[in-house]
Amino acid sequence: MDKNFNYSNLKLGIIGGGQLGKIMSQKAKKMGFHVTILDPTFNCPAAQVSDKHIMGGFHDKEKLEQLVQETDVTTFELEHVDTSILKELFDNGHIIHPSPYIIELIQNKYEQKKLLDEKGIPVPKYKNVENDEDLSAFGFPVIQKAKMGGYDGKGVQMIKTKADLAYRLPTESFIEELVDIDKELAVIVARNIEGQTKCYPVVEMLFDDRTNICDIVMAPAKISKEVEKKSIEISVKSIEALEGVGIFAVELFLTKKGEILVNEIAPRPHNSGHYTVEACATSQFEQIIRAVTNLPLGSTKLISPAVMINLLGEEGYEGEPFIEGIHDALEIPELSFHFYGKTFTKPYRKMGHVTILDDDIDMALEKAMRAKDILKIKGSKKI
Amino acid sequence: MDKNFNYSNLKLGIIGGGQLGKIMSQKAKKMGFHVTILDPTFNCPAAQVSDKHIMGGFHDKEKLEQLVQETDVTTFELEHVDTSILKELFDNGHIIHPSPYIIELIQNKYEQKKLLDEKGIPVPKYKNVENDEDLSAFGFPVIQKAKMGGYDGKGVQMIKTKADLAYRLPTESFIEELVDIDKELAVIVARNIEGQTKCYPVVEMLFDDRTNICDIVMAPAKISKEVEKKSIEISVKSIEALEGVGIFAVELFLTKKGEILVNEIAPRPHNSGHYTVEACATSQFEQIIRAVTNLPLGSTKLISPAVMINLLGEEGYEGEPFIEGIHDALEIPELSFHFYGKTFTKPYRKMGHVTILDDDIDMALEKAMRAKDILKIKGSKKI
């Protein structure tokens, strides 16, 4: 897509139709582009706001090919995708960003870590698990991670003692030292086709203890200038090592000793960047569209501090969602309410989020905690 | 819709599928609502981002009835609508905001003006035109306005001399004194079902001389505290006089003598409030959804000064639009690009807009003027 390309006709394909695809599509539609979603679920969140929905799974080669053939550019809202047909199409000159080779690399958390390590990027100590003895190599406690398929705390577990080895993940995995974490940070990095990068502010993620799902995001993080600078440096270096085009979320550990280590990278918009919709000049969702369509990257300036909280399905409920507390929560000033339009809730499913703006980040956090107390996503059926 | 209503199922109907309906729908979808658009045009901007499209005209009683029957709440992106069937449905208890009685009143600019005048709101001197002599009652020059159907400078003209009477609008009309305008201002007012109002900042509108279409909007307006206060006071009083629920744009004249007069009121989101998407805590488009669905009104706080410019179809072109300059324009920092997805351009048609944020409003204006110079909406056919 060069300067003579007619952007008023641009056809974008998105693999995945959840909340990330939904907001990406809304931003692409804002810019007047035509959007097609590939997703197996009828009436998925992104399909509700897009021009076309191809119903197909992420391993359905025929449907993946159809999406790429029908559109000018294809991108992703998730990385758990069959890459074989995409690599073929990519090699034949179809525009797919990030490249399916990068998606493939990132799918394997061990290979991802190895690459970063080889490029001199600080990561926690790790070791491939080839046999049961390897699990004990760092002593206990230790973190075991599945190489493939993990998300939202799934595919990651702590093995506390030797006896816990009985409950090891029964899949290809690696181990990681248990890091003494002070804070979990994240940096969203955009990279365009020319290799130019732009960074969003460093944010702080707080996790739900029960599920290890990211619960609260504070933008900016409460960290020193030095930690901020180093976090950004490491994040940009990581994405330059990958040579990807699009949006990448770099999850970082700040250790109690003050080291900064890369935990993992997501090759797409990320929960830790939801706040950018309300708080930054260009949201991560618009930024990926700009990057993959060869438009200039937008400003990542933080217009206002913000706190984001996820709205997870309440424990004990499933079925058609009911938003308890919506009236009271929307009384909170400078609160923006997102509900994804999923027709079925279950415990801890990501159903929506809210973002609160406030010049004072502590006040934003206080308002967010209030919203979290008030808003409950219940379901039509008690379980 | 009370606190027990299940908002995850809420069905919203919007009459009109242009750019205003499009952004309204995107905000309703953000909150997870189901949106149906009524519009006669296949693939109109709002239909592209909504769940359902009823193809029908704004005077098609059957289709208007279908929309109201199928949804929980109906609202408007335009006021030129047949109100008879809507009044019937409203009287039978269907939720329609603003009420079709208010839409009907506002459709007639003369009746609108009369009501405001009767409620003590300052308006330019005006007079009903019952016969040709009435056109001369204020001397010349004088403004003649069609009572019904005007928009974007259409249905308004200046009669400069007695000789110009030959070119008078051949329709039911009234005359208005020619006001010595210093600035044209606008205030967006939201009003909810309980009668609570919230005001957006006073903005300044600059008009294209050739077409009298609002061209540039500066938020906030460069006015004294006193003019600001009075503008807000008059605007709120106007909307309280109407007793409408939703979003209302009050267009004001600031005269060279320092008077503030109400020009006219639009009972819906308005071009002068586009900037609220990027610059305010709650956009006018989300605010109308909150108001008509009986949710609390959101904060109207200005997070950053902003300048909005319209992207009108270039003179001399029609057909499939081509966005000239998109690469260069998107290099401008803190610029947000909106393109409506209309498949046909013609001279002066509203095809998109851009909003620029900057802490310094003069800098925002400078960037906006640069974008205006760069971006040209040309068409596939020279005319």
TrEMBL record, chains A, B:
Keywords: ATP-binding, Decarboxylase, Ligase, Lyase, Nucleotide-binding, Purine biosynthesis. InterPro entries: ATP-grasp (IPR011761), ATP-grasp_carboxylate-amine (IPR003135), ATP_grasp_subdomain_1 (IPR013815), PreATP-grasp_dom_sf (IPR016185), PurK (IPR005875), PurK_C (IPR040686), PurT/PurK_preATP-grasp (IPR054350), Rudment_hybrid_motif (IPR011054). Pathway: Purine metabolism; IMP biosynthesis via de novo pathway; 5-amino-1-(5-phospho-D-ribosyl)imidazole-4-carboxylate from 5-amino-1-(5-phospho-D-ribosyl)imidazole (N5-CAIR route): step 1/2. It catalyses: 5-amino-1-(5-phospho-beta-D-ribosyl)imidazole + hydrogencarbonate + ATP = 5-carboxyamino-1-(5-phospho-D-ribosyl)imidazole + ADP + phosphate + 2 H(+). GO terms for molecular function: 5-(carboxyamino)imidazole ribonucleotide synthase activity; ATP binding; metal ion binding; phosphoribosylaminoimidazole carboxylase activity. ATP binds at residues 109, 145, 176-179, 184, 263-264. GO terms for biological process: 'de novo' IMP biosynthetic process. It comes from the Bacteria. One of its GO terms (cellular component) is cytosol. Its EC number is 6.3.4.18. Pfam families: ATP-grasp, PurK_C, RS_preATP-grasp-like. PROSITE patterns: ATP_GRASP (PS50975). Residues 113-293 form the ATP-grasp domain. Catalyzes the ATP-dependent conversion of 5-aminoimidazole ribonucleotide (AIR) and HCO(3)(-) to N5-carboxyaminoimidazole ribonucleotide (N5-CAIR). Catalyzes the ATP-dependent conversion of 5-aminoimidazole ribonucleotide (AIR) and HCO(3)- to N5-carboxyaminoimidazole ribonucleotide (N5-CAIR). Homodimer. Belongs to the PurK/PurT family. This is N5-carboxyaminoimidazole ribonucleotide synthase. The gene is purK.
